Amino acid sequence: MNKVDTFYTANTFVPYKDHSGKQLRHILLGSSFRWLITAGLCGGYVFATRMWQNQGAQSEARKKVYNALTTGISIALGLNIASAFRDMALNMRWPILSGRKRNLVELDLILNADSLTKLVKLMYVARRPLVVFCCIFWLLVNLLAQAGIAMLSLTYSFDLDYSQVQMNPNELVSIPKLDHFYPQGEQSADPSIHDEEYAAHMFGALSYTYRLNTSENTPAAGKIYQPKGAMLYYNFDTKSVEHTFSDSPTGELLGTFSVYTSRTIKATYDCSAYPITANGNGTSIEPVVETLGNMTVEQTVPDSTTFLTHDNHTCEGGLRCSVVEAFEASYTDPWYYVCNVTLGETQKDPHNVSYISDYMAQIATASIAQVGYTDYLGVASQIYPRDSPWGSTANGSTDVVGMAISIFAMGTIAGATMYNPYTNYIGSAPKQGVYLHVGHPYFFYLIISLICGCHLIFIVVVAVLTNRVMVGPDGHLSMSLLLRPIADALNGVSGGKENKAFRDAKRNTTVLYEKPGRSGGRWQLNMIDR
Asked: CB within 8 A of 260, min separation 6: which ones?
């Protein structure tokens, strides 16, 4: 029966063939596989980052997906690089051992070069400058590789997206109640006509604070609401002023994360201008108007404009239209204007979520003149000084006066969307989103490049240096055969015990990994006494 010869102590037998050109290819191929994993993981990191960058506003769930994905890639990348560096250290043992004689204590530590703690101990044991430098260098390489992977997450962040929002279907959308003009936010179901007229007048008086712009700049549906942007858009060609309604996130008022919708409403005007032939300086209540004759204006002030309307100010054939008159007092060029101002119905609103009733349209179109009450003649009037936006001189321009009344009328609607109480409807609710902001793209791509590039450089350098000698075994049984002559010698000195003789022998016995000079010799660890 064949048995393993446990007493075999031949110090010349080592089960390795001399190295050949195949060894270099074998080392490169083995190391390249890990490098391909590194390159793939780095590419995945870049791909995920670029993809999330281009997705715009995202939910917290999408943010968590990215964080989970990049965390997994970082962990896998760190483990792969650590494993690759461990293999490099194991390969580099053999050219290091062949470089010079070393005692058995150093031999033991070098054979465990894949352990960073063993390298620290090797620095303490050897204390030679070159050994200390190489150990520190390798420790730094390992630490910097892991630090670089960790630093990738410092080059980007998720920030609130103020340029767009995410839309969530079948959720509650917050919108203003537009069934009344609610005074001071009062949610009474039936505010009085006086309260509504006064509230509408106050909303309209703030029209210029809502900001104006030309109709060419009307916001597109789906764009995020701009708090500092215009709410009213005028067009002199079509004699109109338009407002775009907005949707807001669930439970919120009009604000940063609201969005413009396709729902719009428009006010139009049609005015006539008549020169005043007498009593037009504002000191008389009975100006004489060309074509119209004697008119009565109970409230007049020199150098001002008085807007007035009557109890029944509805236009003929138009329940959403009001007749508004204006008396422009002047010592030199007084004028009288009669305007029909119409508030159209809400467009692109199939579910009537922004419906404005005829009743509200009547209040809005006459709001520049009425503040809740009329005089004994049934006339509501309001005087505006010359320096106010509503009292500036028009000098007979129907467009200037008509546009002012229309802006005021549309301002009542814009004000209601801001100050009325809010309600909800089921639809696509806007919601604040986050976006991936790579604040330091240079460092992001530099770190990725250094990880891949340095890994590849170390592969080539280690392969070239290692190929100078025969790479020793990495299995425990094969390693035991290589170390058997040394183990047998130590056993003979100490009798198998780690006593003083054993420790002295380890310090005083040196070894060199070398190949005998004769042809066909095998690489082995030769013991040399000091």
From this structure: 219, 220, 221, 222, 223, 224, 225, 244, 245, 246
Rounded distance, CA 94 to CA 223, Å?
A: 66
Cβ contact 355:349 at 8 Å: yes
- How many CB atoms within 10 Å of residue 237? 6
Q: Token digits for 32?
A: 């390249």
Q: How far apart are CA 265 and CA 243, in angstroms?
A: 6
- Rounded CA separation 139/121 (Å): 12
Hey, how many other C-beta atoms are within 10 angstroms of the C-beta on 222?
15
41 touches 73 (CB < 8 A): yes
What is the CB neighbour count within 10 angstroms for residue 462?
Answer: 22
Contact 331, 314 (CB under 8 A): no
Query: Is it the case that residue 329 has pLDDT exceeding 60?
Result: yes
- Compute the radius of gyration of the chain from its Cα atoms: 44
Identity of the amino acid at 249: P
Residue 12 confidence class, pLDDT cut points 50, 70, 90 = very low
Question: Can you read off the two tokens belonging to residue 137?
Answer: 């260098």
Instruction: Look at phi and psi of residue 468 and say left if phi exceeds 0, alpha if psi is from -120 to 50, else beta.
Output: alpha
Q: Please choose, from the candidates 415, 344, 465, the residue with its C-alpha nearest in 3D space to the C-alpha of residue 99.
A: 465
DSSP 8-state class, residue 224:
B
Q: Is 266 helix (H, G, I), strand (E, B) or coil?
A: strand
Q: Specify the higher pLDDT residue, 495 or 520.
A: 495
The structural domains of the chain, with segments of one domain joined by +, span: 21-159+435-529, 166-432
Quote the CA–CA distance of 342 and 351 in Å, as a whole number. 22
Lowest-pLDDT range, 105-119, 333-347, 410-424? Answer: 105-119
**E-assigned strands of 202-310?**
212-214, 232-235, 240-247, 259-278, 288-289, 293-294, 304-310
